[in-house]
């Protein structure tokens, strides 16, 4: 099942004007459950940063003028856009291996006057900037990279002391819609691995240098149902024929209320298992 071609088709449709691009980001925010979990984690991080800053001011220290953030595998730029709106003092560097997306994002962010975000071409297996970032964000990237341990080492080296890496990735509990039958392929066949086990990714982060990490499941039973309604079935239809773009609004009119309930439950419940992971690790 091809996912990237559908994303590119949608990106082309919504890239005609800046306001359509922003609408595209809004739709991704609503439809993608991973975005709900990532944004919640980013807001938690921001609250912690504000608390630390307030304590520093009370103790007479000079507060850093703005956090430096790396969007590691920026894609369409939706998370860089969200971060740029969280705080205008954030300095965001966004990198990706796809040159066309880097050029596209630089054009878009320049057109809307976002001067605190810059996109550049980079390979995460070799990209390092020693002690540079307060936060590294990596959303749906690690499942595409075979040399993941090299990337984790680069993340550790690039973080400032006390900095956080925040990762969203499929788990090994059915991530990418993998089934038990050998003949069935991953729903997302661009992935080099179907997902991580909690112990596996924590050990790899520990070997990279991270002394503290927290991993939690996302996409529990409610989230899996919501994902099928909002993403899997529409993408299967669009892979079958682009004519389904015409009926897609009517499909979502019927199914979205149910997907919304499922996503909300998934965001706030604690899951004993799930097909996704949210990973936090501190330097």
Could you characterize the architecture of this molecule?
The chain is of the alpha/beta class and 283 residues long. The chain has one domain (4-221, 273-282): Vaccinia Virus protein VP39 (Rossmann fold, 3-Layer(aba) Sandwich). Helix content is 49%, strand content 17%. It contains nine helices and seven strands; from the N terminus they run αααβαβαββαβαβααβ. Strands 3-2-1-4-5-7-6 form a seven-stranded mixed β-sheet, with helices on both faces. Helix 6 crosses helix 7 and helix 8 (221-240) packs antiparallel against helix 9 (244-268). Mean pLDDT is 88; it is low at 180-185.
Task: Tell me what the CATH architecture is.
Answer: 3-Layer(aba) Sandwich
Distance between the termini: 37 Å
Low-confidence runs? 180-185
Q: How many distinct domains?
A: 1
Overall average pLDDT: 88
Strand order of the largest sheet: 3-2-1-4-5-7-6
Q: Helix count?
A: 9
How much helix is in the residues?
40-55%
Over all CA atoms, what is the radius of gyration? 19 Å
CATH class: Alpha Beta
Structural class by secondary-structure content: alpha/beta
User: How can the largest sheet be summarized?
Assistant: 7 strands, mixed
Principal-axis shape: globular
Strand content: 15-25%
Q: Determine the CATH topology.
A: Rossmann fold
CATH homology superfamily name: Vaccinia Virus protein VP39
